Fold this sequence. Notes:
This protein is an all-alpha fold.
Amino acid sequence: MRVNEMRSMSRGELLDRVRELRQELFNLRFRVITEQLDNPLRLRAARRELAAALTMLREDELGLSPLAGSTEEKSKG
């Protein structure tokens, strides 16, 4: 998933994506150990995508780069 696509996601969607990526990384690491990983570059791509998603969530917390829909949620609360 591209960074621009992730920036257009809401905070909840991004949190779901982080959860999915963490599960995928767990499965990929398990497959590396059992030597069943077909594409080792997917491990690297998943780590980078997770880092980008976590960075975007942190930027939203700090107010540096608000996510899509996060301004309405913060103004309500």
